[in-house]
């Protein structure tokens, strides 16, 4: 949910959030721009500019909590970092792959925005310490080359989060030198999520639209695991192009990566490339699950942790509900009209906004 601060008229773009005048003064003394809230009034310090907050704006800020970092762009809270909320450090739109089912469009992957390094540095400086979790994502974060190591070192030295997830296509880790540098700066309790589309190069590379990516990705997974400095999860996005290969892919993972931390099997978000290529990639979720079921069974039989992401419960057999995660970011969740009568709605993670147009007519409320 995008929050617009209608009354905001400050000149800075990053602030520490405070609900205590005493703490606000401490932040100012430590050279932080501060967004001080008292009742329904906001005061920007040291600018000493005040404005009123609506009930929605106030409740959102309260949900972030004392010491949170907020980034404001054209009155919109573009990003926020609090102790327990869903914190995401977005690096860039750009990527060296161009996955055919990616929810971002090809122009963004090729020519999109990269967050300026000085803003990235300031966001990290303003973040509270010991946040519950931080996700680092893009695009491909490693597209900014060695600057990513500076970012990781800042996060580590500042003890910014208790756990981390970095989303990457994994290709960069095929370089032993990159793995070595990464291992030197990576914070503790760090998980890297890497997509693997199939067990054979031709299918994987067709989906990633990057020749040689299968060999780079699988080498990257192997190299990362060998460092023993991070956990690694494999992410499998199910499409028409790889659904029939899922059982074989599960066997490949068990044989080649038996010490993988987990496998996430995921439904598509039908935006961007996925929408443009819908005739090539879309598969009904009932059909997708028929191919997922034996793959899941193989992984479980080999003691590999597995979870299902982005699939409503009505498309998943009941014995597998316990591995269905609430995986969709809150503001992207959509329920069909038929979901209103479903007795399992509260337990269901819903579907992506965008994907709902493909699923709405096939949703079957659980009564």
Keywords:
13 helices; 7-stranded parallel β-sheet; 18% strand; 15 strands; globular; alpha/beta; 6-stranded mixed β-sheet; 367 residues; 33% helix
Write the layout of secondary structure elements.
Layout: E1 14-18, H1 21-29, E2 34-38, E3 41-45, E4 49-52, H2 55-64, E5 69-73, E6 76-81, E7 88-90, H3 106-111, H4 117-126, E8 134-137, H5 147-157, E9 164-167, H6 176-185, E10 190-195, H7 201-208, H8 213-227, E11 231-237, H9 246-256, E12 262-266, H10 272-276, H11 278-281, H12 285-301, E13 306-309, E14 333-334, E15 351-352, H13 356-359
Parallel strand pairs: 1-2, 7-8, 8-9, 9-10, 10-11, 11-12, 12-13
Antiparallel strand pairs: 1-5, 2-3, 3-4, 5-6, 14-15
Walkthrough of the structure:
The protein has 367 residues and is an alpha/beta fold. It is built from 13 helices and 15 strands. The chain has a 7-stranded parallel beta sheet with strand order 7-8-9-10-11-12-13, with helices on one face. Strand 3 and strand 4 form a beta hairpin. Helix 6 crosses helix 8 (213-227) and helix 9 (246-256) packs parallel to helix 12 (285-301). The longest helix is centred in the C-terminal third of the chain and has 17 residues, at 285-301. It is globular and about 60 Å long.
Structural class: alpha/beta
SSE string? EHEEEHEEEHHEHEHEHHEHEHHHEEEH
Mean pLDDT: 96
Separation of termini?
30 Å
- Mind describing the biggest β-sheet? 7 strands, parallel
User: Helical percent range?
Assistant: 25-40%
Number of strands: 15
Oligomer: single chain
Molecular shape: globular
The strand order across the widest sheet is: 7-8-9-10-11-12-13
- Our count of helices gives 13
